[in-house]
Design brief:
Number of strands: 8
Strand content: 15-25%
CATH class of the largest domain: Alpha Beta
Number of domains: 2
Radius of gyration: 19 Å
CATH superfamily of the largest domain: NAD(P)-binding Rossmann-like Domain
Length: 221
């Protein structure tokens, strides 16, 4: 993971923290990474945990960055993008968005068409390093940029590229909402076992182990 220079994270929430941790575990140097977040408490937590640089200034954080990961809330994306656009246009830095529901056309409009942007949709299991992420970029984003974006997201998840951006909605429904469906089924199994006389701790453990074993079998089949 040392095949890139400086990487800036705009937003230091849970997904940013998971990605930073995954990248460092795969060989990225903390000195390569800076995160900008308005919360002093969050900046301190990330700096202490990973030994990375932190900043309260987004523009300062992206200066000299080869890659900028946008990990802000969707409703904040437009204002953040418009603020960062001048610096990114000049540097031609790769922008990787992990914000749900923001189409590529909007990102390109805010940043400028000359800035390479990859849209991604990671799911919540990525927070534990076992996620699944869909990625999309138009043909104008070259192979090197695509490979770099994929290497970042693969630090915490399996990765798949979709050919058409409209497919990202299905990715969101499947891998984004999918864990909740499995949790609901597991809760039903556990409740049924408990109703039939199994102690709750045993029902819980058997449900977890059965789900894990079934997933492992599915991956190997």
């Amino acid at each position: 993971m040392n095949d890139f220079g400086k990487m800036a994270f705009i937003g230091g929430g849970n997904m940013a923290g998971a990605l930073i941790g995954g990248l460092i575990r795969r060989g990225a140097r903390p000195a390569q990474i800076v995160v900008a977040d308005p919360s002093g408490e969050r900046r301190s937590a990330l700096g202490d945990e990973f030994g990375i640089s932190v900043s309260a200034d987004n523009a300062q954080a992206i200066a000299g960055a080869e890659v900028v990961v946008l990990a802000v809330k969707p409703q904040q994306m437009r204002s953040v993008a418009l603020t960062l656009a001048p610096g990114l246009c000049e540097a031609r830095s790769l922008v990787v968005s992990v914000a749900a529901g923001i189409p590529h056309a909007a990102l390109a409009r805010w940043f400028g068409s000359q800035v390479p942007v990859v849209r991604t949709m990671p799911n919540r299991p990525a927070l534990n390093g076992f996620g699944a992420t869909g990625l999309y970029a138009p043909a104008s984003v070259g192979a090197a940029y695509r490979a770099l974006a994929e290497s970042i997201m693969s630090a915490v998840s399996a990765t798949v590229w979709v050919e058409h951006e409209s497919q990202m909605d299905t990715v969101t429904a499947l891998s984004g909402s999918g864990p909740a469906y499995f949790f609901l089924f597991m809760e039903a199994l556990e409740a049924a076992a408990h109703e039939r006389g199994l102690p709750s701790d045993i029902a819980h453990r058997l449900t977890l182990e059965t789900a894990f074993g079934a997933a492992q079998m599915a991956r190997q089949s």
